[in-house]
Amino acid sequence: MEKSLEAIIPEIIFTEGSADIPQPIAKEVVSVVLQQLRDGVDVKSREEAVQLEQKANEKVKDLINSNNLKSGSLHQFTVSLLKHSKDPRRLPIASRLFIIAFDRDPLTMPDPTAATMQEGSPLHAATQWGTNAAGYNWASMVLSGQASPPVGLHLLERGSAETRDAIKDQQAAAIRVYATLATQGDAQGMLGMGRILLASARKTDDGKEDEQTQKAQSEMMKSRAILLWTKAGEKGLTEAWFELGLLSLNSMKEGSAEEENVKHSQTAQGYFERGADKDNVRCHHALAIMLAQRAMMDNTSPSSPERNLCLQKAIEHFQKAANLGDGQSAHEVGMRYLLRQEMLEEIGLGSESDGRDAEKVREQAKERHLGLWGVKPDDVTAKEWFSKGADAGFMPAMMNFAGMLYEGRGAAPPVAGEDANVVRLKELKKAESLYAKVAAQAGIMAQQQQKSMAGGSGEDQMASASAQMTAEMATFAQDALGKVQEAMKELSGEV
């Protein structure tokens, strides 16, 4: 059990202070649920499985209460577990812990739309001990297919009507949690219910009823989703502004009047700005993408004030998102400072025949880079942002950071008395570690993507392309790893 706990619960949860539960208590809590999940495989009836879960629930609650902790602490620990743990067992464990922290059985919760309820009135089956956010997270895990299966599901015949009904009942319970929370004015519940309504609107669009009825039903659901998300945003849930911005962007269609698409784009930008004002990471990133695309579409002049302003604001939003922990945004900043080899090749590396030397070619490339991205190329700055993206676990940033380390680009000037070969070897070891991580992670991801694909639809084709790109990244990283190791061997002979 101890080895399993060490694999499931990473140390960083406690060293970074994101968990409100002391490490020994956290291990006890997880061990209770893990043991219950293991024992549940051997039960002979659903009633026995339910009793096993209930005993585990009470034991976890007793552990929390006896250590003067609250359900919110259990919820926060579970969020951290999902964020930092890579062990596949974290998913069923987390969904069980969310249910315990919620302190309600979603399967027994009534449909809030079937009764008249006022915003702010007590929740059905509410307890003073439970945390609503835990219920929202459990429902989100169920609807994304990440939660532990319905209790006793393994006792049913695979593919049977009873199995399908049990899964549908769990999904319906998740939607009821969203609906109940939304009815009570809970911002996360509103966010979740808005997503359900939007998904239903898309299904209505694909239905077989007459076109006019479909459109009316779809628009009604979209309007309700917009209303819920707007209320959630006004209550301080910044993710709602991102959802509203994304919905507006997705409303832009080819063949529509330009004025209509411009209106949707402006509306989206307004929503993203509201979220970015509250430092929502995804809103910062989305704004940066919109502004960068606008600059690239500006054909007036590479140095036009409007274009340069868009580029400047884009990089500012990327930087803000990166400083909030978004690895992809950090990578985008790094790419804007990196002088790329293809730009040098486009200009030409210089030769005696055209009278240019390599340095003049580089200066021309730098000028073109400045006109394209709005910043001067700088290897040191690019390397710093790639390092930041690598620390966040974004694989393209890890690859570019490793590449710069291998090539010696952006290296700090040597310190007096420091052995240059020793410094170089440290850089190569860091590059080796990064390439090894990418090769392993991308390889696993590619295998998982291949397994999850069915085949035939457009989405499957996109998934296939994504799996191929991930596999190519794994291959490239593996090849680069070999080159780095060869360089280390050569250098070690000189140290």
Automatic annotation (TrEMBL):
<dbReference type="InterPro" id="IPR006597">
    <property type="entry name" value="Sel1-like"/>
</dbReference>
<dbReference type="Pfam" id="PF08238">
    <property type="entry name" value="Sel1"/>
</dbReference>
<protein>
    <recommendedName>
        <fullName>HCP-like protein</fullName>
    </recommendedName>
</protein>
<dbReference type="InterPro" id="IPR011990">
    <property type="entry name" value="TPR-like_helical_dom_sf"/>
</dbReference>
<comment type="similarity">
    <text>Belongs to the sel-1 family.</text>
</comment>
<dbReference type="InterPro" id="IPR050767">
    <property type="entry name" value="Sel1_AlgK"/>
</dbReference>
